[in-house]
Design a protein that fits this description.
By secondary structure, the chain is an alpha+beta fold. It is built from three helices and two strands; from the N terminus they run H-H-H-E-E. It has one domain. The model has no long low-confidence stretch (mean pLDDT 88).
Length: 91
């Protein structure tokens, strides 16, 4: 498969963010890494918008009948728990 040509993407930052980035030796590499990490954490339903479409919400409502959002007793992060299966401890 042929390698894709790199493209330049630019964006504006405020003064505080610019000051915070001044000590970073390779800002481009840092920003690429931060974006890739953020994309790995995007909600699979809303894809980062924070809003479900009406049809997505219908699917969520059906899913939520057998699932709940609970706080982990160890790390205190929220996670989904299925009421139909035995809970598996991830810690």
């Amino acid at each position: 498969m042929p390698k894709r040509k790199q493209e330049i993407v630019s964006f504006k930052v405020d003064g505080a963010l610019l000051d915070a980035m001044k000590g970073i030796p390779n800002r481009s590499e840092f920003i690429r890494g931060a974006i890739l990490m953020a994309l790995d954490s995007v909600c699979p339903l809303c894809r980062g918008t924070g809003i479900l479409t009406p049809r997505q919400y219908e699917h969520w409502e059906a899913f939520a009948k057998d699932h709940a959002v609970k706080e982990c007793g160890e790390c205190h992060e929220l996670h989904l728990v299925c009421s139909q299966k035995r809970r598996r401890n991830v810690h």
